[in-house]
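Here we describe the complex-level prediction in full. Unlike the single-chain runs in Section 2.1, the two entities below were treated as one system.
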Amino acid sequence: MAHFDENARPFSHKWLNERLAIDTLKRVLSTEYWIPKNINFLWAMGMVLAATFGLLLVSGIFLLMYYQPNTQLAFDSVNYTIMSEVGYGWLWRHIHGVGASVVFLIIYIHMFTGIYYGSYKKGRELIWLSGMLLFVLFSAEAFSGYMLPWGQMSYWAGMVITNLFSGGSLHANGLVEWIRGDYVPGQAFLNRFFMLHVLLIPLAIIGVIVLHFGTLRIPHVNNQDGEEIDFEEAAELYKAGKVKESKVIPFNPVFLSKDIFVMGIYFILFFYLVFYHFEFAMDPVNFDPANPLKTPTHIYPEWYFLWSYEVLRPFPTDPGLIAFAFAQVIFFLLPFLDRSPNVAPASRRGAFKFWFWALLIDMIVLTFMGKLPPEGIWSTIGLVAAVTFIGLWIALPIITSKEKKL
Amino acid sequence: MATNNKGRRDFMGMALGGFTALGGIGALYAMKRTWDPLPSVKAAGFTTLNMKEYEDNKLVVEKWRGKPIFVLKHSADIIEKLKKEKPDDLKRVIKIGDGHYTVCIGLCTHLGCIPGFRPETNDFLCACHGGMYDVTAQVTKAPPPRGLDIPPFKIDGDKLVLGEEGPEYKKMLADGITMPV
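The structure predicted for the assembly as a whole is:
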């Protein structure tokens, strides 16, 4: 039986400590969670993502109060009720739309930081895998949310993406109709994607975020040189007052203050977009209500899906689907395809340096080609970039196994 | 006694695990069935078209099961041209009285966009990924893997019932002209 001091005032520090161990929690989760000093602003992206997710959650809660998940009402409930009747409804919608777009930019920066510094190996594999799982969940969340305004882009993106599940020549039409609950996207479809968007996927995201933090705890975050730090020794040095000599700082309040500085700059940009340039996250085609009898001239996904869309597009159906499936899962395998033992920035890793920049540039090219109509020279560039993408991943185990040990 | 206990615990574990698995499978089945299309959705699956109303070489878009249906009546010279150049395509054409019709689901067989009809060239172009189809909606340029699918139909005098399988449709299926949808 634990000891409870009968004289402790209710909700006093002592009273809470005896019931919740708040001192221990604070120590373990923040003041003695050690972060290397040798890092730069790119290490703040995790907290920037967490804050953006928070904004999406809050703005989503307010949108949920007026949104109608009904094919007859959804479009007007978003474009009329929320945008012009609800007090500050436009604010929540613009935060939600801009946040959904910007969160992917930060996810990509976060991912490529990890790839550049080799933060996915030697004990950090699960950080990478849980992070990739979050990427998939965020993609599903973005897609299901895109259905809800029930505009032309919502409808036709829903049609095209659910058709992917027919598996090309497998003709699994039954599976597609099962996912939709109808022969075409309709009421059943809108309702179930609404459920996924506001409950099931956000729940899963929150769970995996906790897992993602958990996977970070034992291997700790990487640093700019990939140096293996003895965290216990460095922490003792810090606690003994040798702050300058120690290679680490506590997460709270020291590192967090830097995180918050980066977040401050980020939020200036973010709210500039929300108030003055929200239109980049609002496709004009989606301001036409869904029409099952008319496909828009060009349909394309939001910018963050364009690269994988462009891996699908230049090929015939079946190879296209295989290439698309490859693009979706291949990032998961990164810790196992990189055969080099070196944890170091790409610039010190010989051929890997060129692989990294080639991958980044190739994905930017794929993104631009995915937006352009599939005609003439654009088709050719798209095909070359798609083949390059697959080729780079096949080359990765070969070039990394030949890498010299640092 | 200790081993006996272990045996009992194993039995309890297996019994609990077995019933839990059974319940889990049952729950999964219920979840699967909840996602199925509703019977009302499945029952509203028939459309009747009056084929006399259509004009030569003019595409009309009808609706069946929420999907667009292309109806294109071919003029005599188009049929003559097909006989000479693409006799195989004629197998896709439905003959009702004196008229020749292309009736198909207007969703690209690649990923389901609606291809546009171009009257000046008498063909279809899908803007999504650049697929092309000729006048009978047979594919002429990838990525679509095949021509537009023909919905199940039954010829009833001058009328065409979509959703019912008549002998002409069954023959098309058997000959591999179209796929079951």
